[in-house]
Write a structure and sequence with these properties.
66% of the residues lie in helices and 6% in strands. It is mostly helical and 123 residues long.
Length: 123
């Protein structure tokens, strides 16, 4: 998986918009984003401190040389940690890592790579 992720990011396959989260340009990129979501959400559920989680994610996905890769990792990790904070603040149950990833993947596929509704917009 690591070479595929590195190749996607190195080739610039993920487009960047000034005020939006990364946009995937293929089903494969949506799949990679969903994989990243599973790991990020799992780290958040285990209450791994954010700097350590970020370092783990960069190592797993091999994006230390890719600004776009690091940006997508940050967006997904921000969303995963935000979901966990919301779940901790509410009395209801928590979303599983698999559910979070499925929601991201489904949104990505249905919205032609646009994951803003899950990842949020940046200002």
């Amino acid at each position: 998986m690591k070479p595929v992720v590195a190749a996607l990011f190195a080739s610039g396959a993920l487009a960047c918009s000034a005020h939006a989260a990364q946009r995937a340009e293929s089903a494969l990129e949506c799949s990679v984003a969903a994989d990243i979501a599973v790991v990020a959400h799992s780290l958040a559920r285990e209450h791994i401190q954010r700097p350590k989680a970020d370092a783990i994610m960069v190592r797993i996905y091999g994006v230390s040389e890719s600004d776009r890769g690091r940006e997508l990792l940050r967006d997904i990790t921000d969303a995963a940690y935000g979901v966990q904070q919301e779940a901790g603040a509410s009395a209801g149950g928590t979303t599983s890592s698999q559910e979070f990833a499925e929601e991201l993947y489904t949104t990505c596929m249905k919205r032609s790579g646009d994951m803003d509704t899950i990842l949020g917009r940046r200002s």
